[in-house]
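Lab notebook, design round three. We kept the backbone fixed and only want residue identities now. Task for the bench partner: fill in a sequence for the structure below.
Input structure tokens:
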């Protein structure tokens, strides 16, 4: 097994060299395994920070949608259309790889519309310039969404 925290190969020999015992190992088969409590604590702190960062980014997306479309109903965490973000971390820095948030609009009959953020994972993109947000809806709701977006744009202007 490999420690999910530090990456060390957890073997009996390594545990003895590190003055640890098998009782210090935390985790279950098929899940995340840690060689010791400090590794699990560090990992828990990173995961907590990722969740906080995800929540902040989702709130930013909500603000963008409210600014563009006004007061709309967002879907929460308890249904199939829960908001979510894929958070990247490297050397203590966090970034968003992908995020999506679902919201209802007048005339919707099939499913909510979605605002999506996707980091352009491309060697051609040099990191300069804006990353575009994309709005999506079901094909059957397209005309209603386009009408809603057009009306919202007129009101905002």
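Proposed sequence:
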């Amino acid at each position: 097994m490999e420690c999910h925290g530090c990456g060390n190969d957890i073997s009996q020999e390594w545990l003895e060299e590190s003055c640890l015992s098998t009782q210090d190992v935390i985790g279950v088969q098929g899940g995340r395994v840690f060689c010791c409590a400090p590794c699990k604590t560090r990992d828990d702190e990173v995961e907590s920070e990722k969740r906080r960062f995800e929540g902040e980014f989702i709130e930013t997306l909500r603000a963008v949608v409210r600014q563009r479309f006004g007061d709309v109903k967002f879907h929460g965490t308890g249904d199939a259309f829960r908001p979510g973000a894929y958070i990247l971390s490297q050397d203590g820095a966090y970034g968003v790889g992908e995020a999506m948030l679902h919201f209802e609009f007048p005339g919707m009959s099939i499913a909510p519309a979605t605002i999506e953020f996707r980091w352009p994972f491309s060697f051609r993109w040099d990191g300069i310039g804006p990353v575009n947000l994309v709005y999506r809806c079901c094909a059957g709701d397209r005309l209603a969404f386009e009408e809603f977006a057009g009306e919202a744009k007129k009101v905002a202007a």
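Keep this in mind before ordering anything: The mean pLDDT is 86.
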